[in-house]
Amino acid sequence: MKTFTTSRGTRIQQIAGGRSNVFLVSGPSYRLLVDTGPQYKGTRLTGMLQNKAGGKVDGLLLTHTHFDHAGNARLVKETFGCEVFVHRSEKAFLFSGDCPLPAGTNVFTKLLINAFGEIASKKVRYPTCTAETLIDDQYSFSDKGLNAIALHTPGHSCGSLSLLVDQEIVLAGDTLFGIFPGNCFPPFGDNITQLAESWEKLLSTGATLFLPSHGWPVSRKTIEKNLNKLKL
Question: Is the pLDDT of residue 122 over 70?
Answer without folding.
Answer: yes
